[in-house]
Specification:
The complex is a heterodimer. Chain A has one domain (10-301): Succinyl-CoA synthetase domains (Rossmann fold, 3-Layer(aba) Sandwich), CATH 3.40.50. Helices cover 36% and strands 20% of the residues of chain A. Chain A has helices spanning 19-31, 57-64, 77-89, 104-117, 144-150, 163-175, 196-205, 222-233, 272-281, 293-301, and strands spanning 10-14, 34-39, 47-48, 51-54, 70-73, 94-97, 120-122, 128-131, 135-137, 153-160, 180-185, 211-216, 239-243, 286-287. The mean pLDDT of chain A is 94. Chain B is of the alpha+beta class. Chain B folds into 3 domains: 21-92, ATP-grasp fold, A domain (Dna Ligase, domain 1); 96-224, 2-Layer Sandwich (D-amino Acid Aminotransferase, Chain A, domain 1); 240-399, Succinyl-CoA synthetase domains (Rossmann fold, 3-Layer(aba) Sandwich), CATH 3.40.50.261. Chain B is built from 15 helices and 16 strands. In chain B, the strands form 4 sheets. In chain B, strands 5, 6, 7, 8, 9 and 10 form a 6-stranded antiparallel β-sheet that branches. Chain B has a 4-stranded antiparallel β-sheet with strand order 1-4-2-3. Classes of the chains: A alpha/beta, B alpha+beta. At the A-B interface, α1, α4 and α6 of A face α10 and α15 of B.
């Protein structure tokens, strides 16, 4: 099992004729994902690696002849909100938003509409998600052969604010003989569709997942939310956290933003030091090195 | 994007929120004329993009126009927190009955904007919220539905206000909420919002911040209020290194590079793949006793010229002895291109790549090609089996000799 994806999961790629989208389509198809159509307004009738291209999501759904499970949105920031609305209003329930630099208001509008329609957004500013041996949705892990090298099926769920580090961490877990159930690049922006706490219930229900690894950074309150969720839900699933960007706590770095848009620290509460203390107090160990993660996971699983 | 107070006033005014009859002046003579037209006691305020103006002597009161001109002349020369003012604001000294606080900002956790109102304005709102929680009203706004006046009224009523004040303050808060949404403000704050002796409400000070990603869609408004879109508005003056890296990035649309060196003074230059990897490796270098000379990211698929440009800037910084080039297992940045770029940078600066590049951690797209190039120039590299931590440690030991 895995979370969100399954063997027969179908999805479309919005903006499929763009350069990065063409690569991503190739990678996903090679990995065994079922991309049933692509959408780029004005490009109906083309094909991308054998995937038919349509002008609208409505046409794509009609072509498929059945509801489509997901969409990967890779369209320029000014058009992303409308593309995501289009996917949601055509019955799509899982939307991965790859695009970076989307204004926060647009993201918040997408997320609110998704909530009203029972859909879920992953991202923006993310590489998508991957269930090893099942499917991948987005550029996560890169070309299929590289993705297969870094990701083998296993008991650990991974959630990361950094797309690249999702794979770095998973590769470390794989090399240590553990492997991954599902890895989700949740996005690096200040407002994202699905936070750690919002995804935890899915991992909790997944029979394959026995432990969770999160990659986090300064900025935002998502760790506090995770801790509160864990206490409220009485969850005992072990979580190991890695915190990058500790150097940002230095006085001369205050108010600066590094890496992802979400890292700007607006108060003491969202500094690295404060987050580490909060997570550790809740029984979530925070390691200093990526290569310490496998041992901490094995410890938690009693292996 | 941050705004000067006088710009924030213009934004607030355009949204239909009353302000005092202020004047923005860039010379002492203009300040004299502005004070004379106000015809009463005034306050002269420095226009800088930093806090602590009052403490630094950037806010002065004057009873006459000549006095206002004198203060303006002094304030215009006064540097505050490393920033020179762009002018002064001359404002009538208002007859204030009571001060309030009004703001609309993002609640990232709720993923919605939140209105905040307090009848204890003029002071730090966080302190009020802690000590007098019953004097702070809050409410979230929908992102999709129209902003209803009654939501603002409810928020104001939650801090115990009633009578004609309730309606007047509620209208100001509703206008502020629409402004926040319409102009993509990450913060729209009026503090203090003042009730004058005649019962009217005016914004005495306003603080606006617009999300950088949204600036492009508000050019018309920004131009109308006189904002120069070419002017950098950072918290600090960008260094030469930062300006140069930005220019190299802007010159070519392929790939993205970033470089910062504010607060970094070390001898090990860093060229690192992607944002998360950069945060992780900067920590790993520091934790093992290394001193990074900069922060840098390479993402997407940059050209050889772009990688070379970034490496040259890093190598050109004072005190840099070696550079470490470290990639994480990212999907799409071609390491052979990064390798070509950094080697070219070394050669063009007359440096031996084998000596200058302390370590190259190679995982990524086209890694076999990358390895060939590095072999050719004798550069030491490691693959994914060497952790980020260990690669950073190798670089630190090399630069320390």
């Amino acid at each position: 099992m895995s979370v969100l994806l399954h063997k027969d999961f179908t999805f479309i790629v919005q903006g499929i004729t763009g350069r990065e989208a063409v690569n991503l389509t190739r990678e996903c198809l090679d990995f065994g994902s079922k991309i049933v159509a692509g959408v780029t307004p004005g490009r109906k009738g083309r094909e991308v690696h054998g995937v038919p291209v349509f002008d609208t999501v409505e046409q794509a759904v009609a072509h498929h002849g059945a509801p489509i499970d997901g969409a990967v949105a890779t369209v320029p920031p000014a058009f992303t909100k409308d593309a995501v609305f289009e996917a949601i209003e055509n019955g799509i329930k899982l939307i991965v938003v790859v695009t970076e630099r989307i204004p926060r208001r647009d993201v918040a509008e997408m997320v609110e509409l998704a909530g009203e329609r029972g859909a879920r957004i992953i991202g923006p500013n993310c590489l998508g998600l991957i269930a090893p041996g099942v499917a991948k949705m987005g550029g996560i892990g890169g070309p299929a052969k590289d993705a297969a090298k870094a990701y083998v099926p296993g008991p650990v769920g991974v959630m990361s604010r950094s797309g690249g580090m999702t794979t770095e961490i998973s590769s470390t877990l794989t090399a240590a003989g553990l492997g991954v159930s599902t890895a989700i690049s949740i996005g690096g922006d200040a407002i994202i569709g699905s936070t750690y706490a919002e995804l935890m219930p899915l991992f909790e229900e997944d029979p394959q997942t026995e432990a969770i690894v999160i990659y986090t950074e300064p900025g935002g309150r998502m760790e506090a939310e995770l801790v509160e969720w864990r206490e409220a839900a009485g969850s005992k699933m072990p979580i190991v956290a890695f915190m990058a960007g500790r150097f940002m706590d230095d006085e001369e770095m205050q108010g600066m933003s590094f890496g992802h848009a979400g890292t700007i620290v607006e108060g003491v509460e969202d500094s690295a030091t404060e987050k580490i203390a909060r997570l550790e107090a809740a029984g979530i160990p925070v390691v200093e090195r990526i290569d310490e993660i496998p041992d901490r996971v094995k410890e938690a699983l009693g292996r | 994007m941050r705004f000067y107070e006088y710009e924030s006033r213009r934004i607030v005014e355009r949204a239909g929120i009353p302000v005092t009859r202020y004047g923005f002046c860039t010379t002492a003579d203009e300040a004299r004329a502005a004070a004379a037209s106000i015809d009463g006691p005034v306050v002269v305020k420095s226009q800088v993009l930093t806090g602590g103006r009052m403490k630094a002597g950037g806010v002065k009161f004057a009873d006459t126009a000549d006095e206002a001109a004198e203060h303006a002349a002094a304030i215009l020369e006064l540097e505050i927190g490393g920033h020179m003012p762009v002018g002064v604001l001359v404002d009538p000294k208002a007859e204030v009955e009571q001060e309030y606080y009004a703001a609309v900002l993002w609640d990232a956790r709720a993923k919605r904007p939140m209105m905040l109102f307090s009848d204890m304005g003029g002071i730090d709102i966080e302190q009020v919220a802690e000590e007098h929680p019953d004097h702070v009203g809050r409410a979230h706004l929908s992102n999709l539905h129209p902003i209803a006046d009654f939501r603002a009224k409810e928020t104001v009523a939650r801090c115990g206000m009633t009578g004609s004040e309730l309606g007047r303050a509620g209208r100001v808060l509703a206008a502020l909420a629409r402004l926040q949404r319409d102009y993509d403000m990450t913060l729209a704050e009026i503090n203090p919002l003042a009730r004058l002796s005649d019962g009217s409400f005016v914004a005495l000070d306003a603080h606006m911040e617009m999300e950088d990603e949204a600036v492009g869609r508000h050019k018309a408004m920004l131009t109308e209020i006189g904002v120069d879109l070419g002017e950098p508005r950072e918290l600090y003056e960008p260094s030469e290194f930062e300006r140069n890296v930005k220019a190299i990035d802007a010159a070519d649309h392929r790939g993205v590079i970033q470089g910062k060196d504010h607060g970094f003074t070390g001898n090990l230059g860093l060229v690192i793949g992607a944002g998360g990897g950069s945060l992780t490796l900067t920590d790993a270098v520091r934790s093992q006793g290394g001193k990074p000379a900069n922060y840098a990211e390479i993402g997407g698929n940059p050209s050889v010229a772009k990688s070379c440009g970034l490496a040259k800037q890093v190598l050109g910084k004072d005190g840099v002895e070696k550079i470490a080039v470290m990639m994480s297992i990212v999907s799409n940045t071609r390491v052979d291109i990064v390798a070509r770029g950094v080697i070219k940078a070394c050669l063009e600066l007359g440096k031996d790549p084998a000596e200058t590049i302390a370590i190259f951690r190679i995982p990524g797209a086209w890694e076999d090609e990358g390895a060939k190039i590095l072999d050719k120039y004798g550069v030491e590299y490691v693959d994914r089996s060497v952790s980020m931590w260990d690669a950073a440690g190798m670089a630190v030991r090399k630069v320390q000799g």
